[in-house]
Inverse folding.
């Protein structure tokens, strides 16, 4: 039994979402620190970027990532209107992204 077996899936998803939201600020700080940035933080950034590259296979997915998690936070309905997609597509993309990030950073198997 792994530690994640004791944590409800919704809690793990919330933690992964927090990692995605934090990414731009952490990257900015690592750039500021340069060589002084901790190696484990640099490794985390690489893991996150790998997941983002795996996810962002279309311009629409890249736009979803930006709109949903970075910058001014807007609702799913607003994202649907801006992108011209149905809400179920956003849910599918969100689940796909969180799974990729979770696997890359070792939060899920």
């Amino acid at each position: 039994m792994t530690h994640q077996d004791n944590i409800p899936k919704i809690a793990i998803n919330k933690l992964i979402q927090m990692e995605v939201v934090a990414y731009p600020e952490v990257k900015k700080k690592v750039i500021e620190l340069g060589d002084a940035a901790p190696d484990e933080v640099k490794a985390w950034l690489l893991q996150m970027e790998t997941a983002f590259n795996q996810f962002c296979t279309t311009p629409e997915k890249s736009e979803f990532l930006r709109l949903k998690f970075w910058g001014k936070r807007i609702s799913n309905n607003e994202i649907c209107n801006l992108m011209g997609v149905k809400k179920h597509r956003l849910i599918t993309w969100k689940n796909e992204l969180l799974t990729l990030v979770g696997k890359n950073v070792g939060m899920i198997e």
Observations:
- The radius of gyration is 15 Å.
- The first helix runs from residue 9 to 33.
